């Protein structure tokens, strides 16, 4: 082995304080014939013989130094607590309180989850706004606007006088699709058209079509129409559409309400027929009639009485 | 890491300044030793130590116990000492007379003279080493840091530290020879 490299390794061990007695003896033997390495060993000894680089100052000087440090820390802490910090520091202190931390965390989490998973409505609005904004940049004249697939209505706006304006409006468009009868979109569109009535003809047509399919959303839309549609024709048609849901508690409740509140005698008679068909007890039927909020028609009363007699 | 140090740190973090005083007592000599290797005089070293301990207090919340406290403390000490060095670059080099008289007052006059000459030469040469080499020498010879601890402080390998120490020894030897006739070159 290269002696100089070995010596360097041994001196390295000597410096690190990890040299064994055998290696130390070997080193001492080597340096007899290598004075330049003997110098290094001597230098190492001199360094190790020095207890410190400089004499340490007396303990009172260290005490004074530490007291100064503590004083400065205290002064700094007092300053911080006496003078209100920046708005960010104050917020930081508030957030440090456990209940505030929980509230803040919830808000932050909600915000980020909201960003990650925006609600369907938000996401849809954003998509629509993107689409109509993009379209608007392509419109050069009124003809383009007339041919636009979107119609804007129910517009209201507020000028903020800073170059900005708040706009609130409905966006409608017309779509043509060909789909299966059981497509959820078909049922959604039909139910929507009943809760947002456009014209009597369309509503009647929708109700007619809905009679060919039993669906919870459509049933609820029909009940809504029974109670809310302004047109008697639509309300009657909706009641007709609900006939397919025999022995359905929600429909029974809806018809009971019709019997109590509906001004139309024809509708009340239809309600009695449904309730009798669904097996309602004569006493229950009689009670509903007697609790009626509208003057009962003799036709309804006779029908109820005949049912009780036959029962 | 020293568990007692960790306990003190936890207490300081919860606002106990007495515990910080205790931490300072434990580490003040090491901090001073490194500080003086930059300032070259006791008064400045004490001022620098004060700055270093304030910095340590400010940053104590960032200490997570992932490294040894003494290596973390030494990194701050080294950085602050380097900052001090940059600020004082134009300052005149100090003499080391103060050391000679204080350290060797109970020795024979001729031994005292030789020892003080040796020490003066040693210090002069130490201050000529670059700051990383100087820190390695101070920590190894005066603070008994292991090679591993020095490597952690300087964020380098043990091999690099060993090489630094060997090179430093070679540089120091050349100066010490002047006052050590017994050592042949």
Task: Give a verbal description of the structure.
- The complex is a heterodimer of chains A (311) and B (185).
- Chain A is built from 16 helices and two strands.
- In chain A, strands 1-2 form a two-stranded antiparallel sheet.
- With 311 residues, chain A is mainly α.
- In chain A, strand 1 and strand 2 form a beta hairpin.
- Chain A starts with a helix and ends with a helix.
- Chain B is mainly alpha-helical and 185 residues long.
- In chain B, 74% of the residues lie in helices and 0% in strands.
- In chain B, helix 2 crosses helix 4.
- Classes of the chains: A mainly alpha (311), B mainly alpha (185).
- The interface between A and B is large, with 36 and 49 residues.
Mean pLDDT of chain B: 81
Alpha plus pi helix count of chain A: 16
- Rg of chain B, rounded, reads 18 Å
Number of strands of chain B: 0
Task: Write the element-wise H/E pattern of chain B from the N-terminal end onward.
Answer: HHHHHHHHH
How far apart, in Å, are the first and last alpha carbons of chain A? 120 Å
**Percent helix range of chain A:** 55-70%
**Biggest chain pair contact, residues each?**
A-B, 36 and 49 residues
Total strand segments of chain A = 2
Quick one: overall form of chain A?
elongated
**What's the SSE pattern of chain A?**
HHHHHHHHEEHHHHHHHH
Globally, the shape of chain B reads globular
Q: How is the main sheet of chain B built?
A: none
């Amino acid at each position: 082995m290269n002696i100089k490299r070995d010596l360097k390794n041994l001196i390295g061990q000597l410096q690190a304080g990890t040299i064994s007695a055998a290696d130390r003896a070997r080193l001492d033997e080597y340096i007899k014939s290598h004075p330049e390495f003997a110098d290094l060993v001597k230098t190492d000894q001199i360094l190790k013989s020095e207890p410190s680089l400089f004499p340490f100052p007396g303990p009172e000087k260290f005490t004074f130094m530490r007291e100064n440090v503590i004083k400065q820390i205290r002064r700094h802490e007092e300053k911080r607590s006496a003078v209100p910090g920046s708005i960010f520091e104050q917020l930081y202190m508030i957030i440090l309180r456990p209940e505030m931390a929980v509230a803040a965390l919830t808000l932050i989490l909600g915000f980020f989850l909201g960003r990650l998973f925006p609600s369907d409505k938000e996401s849809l609005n954003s998509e629509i706004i993107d689409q109509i904004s993009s379209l608007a940049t392509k419109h050069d004249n009124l003809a383009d606007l007339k041919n636009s697939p979107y119609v804007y209505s129910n517009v209201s706006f507020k000028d903020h006088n800073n170059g900005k304006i708040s706009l609130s409006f409905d966006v409608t468009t017309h779509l043509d699709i060909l789909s299966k009868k059981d497509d959820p979109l078909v049922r959604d569109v039909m139910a929507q058209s009943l809760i947002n009535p456009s014209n009597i003809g369309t509503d009647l047509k929708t109700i007619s079509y809905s009679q060919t399919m039993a669906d919870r959303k459509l049933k609820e839309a029909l009940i809504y129409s029974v109670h809310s549609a302004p047109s008697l024709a639509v309300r009657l048609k909706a009641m007709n559409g609900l006939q397919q849901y025999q022995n359905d508690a929600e429909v029974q409740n809806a018809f009971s309400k019709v019997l109590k509140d509906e001004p139309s005698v024809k509708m009340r008679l239809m309600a009695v027929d449904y309730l009798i068909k669904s097996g309602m007890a004569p006493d229950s039927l009689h009670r509903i009639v007697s609790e009626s909020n509208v003057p009962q028609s003799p036709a309804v009363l006779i029908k109820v009485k005949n049912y009780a007699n036959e029962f | 890491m020293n568990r007692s140090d960790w306990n003190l740190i936890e207490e300081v973090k919860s606002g106990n300044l007495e515990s910080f005083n205790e931490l300072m007592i434990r580490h003040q000599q090491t901090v001073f030793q490194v500080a003086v290797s930059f300032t070259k005089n006791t008064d400045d070293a004490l001022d620098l130590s004060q700055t270093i301990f304030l910095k340590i207090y400010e940053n104590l919340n960032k200490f997570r116990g992932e490294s040894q406290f003494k290596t973390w403390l030494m990194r701050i000490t080294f950085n602050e000492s380097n900052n001090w060095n940059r600020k004082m670059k134009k300052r005149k080099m100090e003499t080391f007379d103060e050391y000679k008289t204080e350290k060797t007052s109970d020795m024979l006059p001729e031994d005292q003279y030789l020892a003080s000459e040796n020490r003066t030469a040693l210090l002069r040469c130490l201050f000529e080493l670059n700051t990383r080499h100087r820190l390695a020498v101070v920590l190894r010879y005066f603070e008994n840091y292991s090679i591993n601890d020095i490597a952690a402080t300087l964020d380098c390998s043990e091999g690099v530290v060993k090489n630094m120490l060997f090179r430093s020894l070679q540089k120091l030897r050349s100066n010490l020879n002047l006052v050590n006739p017994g050592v042949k070159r």
